[in-house]
Please model this.
Amino acid sequence: MKPVKVLIIAGARPNFMKIAPIMHAMRKSSKLEPILVHTGQHYDVKMSDTFFDELNIPRPDISLEVGSDTHARQVAKIMERFEPVCDEQKPQAILVVGDVNSTMACSIVAAKKEIKIIHVEAGIRSRDRSMPEEINRMVTDAITDILMPPSRDAVDNLLAEGHAPEKIHLVGNIMIDTLLESKDRINKSEILKTLNLQAGNFVSLTLHRPSNVDNIDNFRKILAALEIIQQELPIVFPIHPRTRKMISEFGLEDYVVSMKNLILTDPLGYFDFGKLISASRFVLTDSGGIQEETTIYGIPCITLRENTERPVTVWEGTNELAGCDTETIIALARQILDGNWKKGRIPELWDGAAAGRIISILEEVL
Ligand code: UD1
Model:
């Protein structure tokens, strides 16, 4: 029998570590034929190519090269360029991961063409519609045929939204497959030497959510907390292009540079970044995936958001929400420095075997 053709969609940095284990496992299956489509939502070497090289992801079969734009224009461009790909390739299914614009845009195109949609990381919800990703999650799941949530709370969200139980397959957290698989290479990273850091004696920071960096009041509140924290421990800040742009637009360069213990770097590769967070005293972040990675490493995480679509990292892991309030961030940092933080445990099915479960299910249902 001819293998079932599945277009695997990747667009932005947080997608790459999720598609890597799926691509690898699917290429070994005689029943499935993966075709990799890169939308080009992220296109810089440091935001995209590095991850393909490090994680041994094959070069994309098809590149849509959409680049950055407003949300409406970016989504429109992806849809316009993905439609003829579907017509030419005639896949039986597309597989999307996560919650970026590319996830939603390609799903809408596929749904209208009656091509089956598989969504890995389905069902997570922040219930905050001011987050562009929440809209992407809701729209994608509403039209997905095979829902693959990472955790039980995500299954419950999908059931509460009225999805039929037979469409829902709890597969676990795909990102952890990549993390566990990469452990040796993460350990070997020389990033601490390069940045002249001692394990356990620094803080790592990532910041890029529009709600934090596109709003000057919120951005200033976070910077005020950093100003205090960096007096105690150096803070390493691999800076996202959006954040760099906003620092300059808001004229905040002098303030940022005045913090002598705030170490700015370009975005890091997967192994260096893994090493950085796993050796941190604690992590400050507004990312989704880093809340999960710190839980696996057992490193305290202060999330600079009011809510999270990954509540299991708070219930079971090492994560706490701080929003962008200066005093709250400082109080939580003090709590960690005083040795007063939960230990956390590894959530169910964050075991490095999610890709295997995904492929077995697809071989059966497609
Ligand atoms: C996107 C995702 C977000 C994810 C984040 C991780 C959506 C809605 N958002 O947000 O969920 O957490 O990626 O990085 O899909 N830029 C570059 N080089 C690049 C890509 C972007 O310089 O390779 C710059 C551009 O100036 C662009 C800005 O970064 O305008 C923001 O990029 P964009 O893809 O619009 O959103 P992110 O903030 O990266």
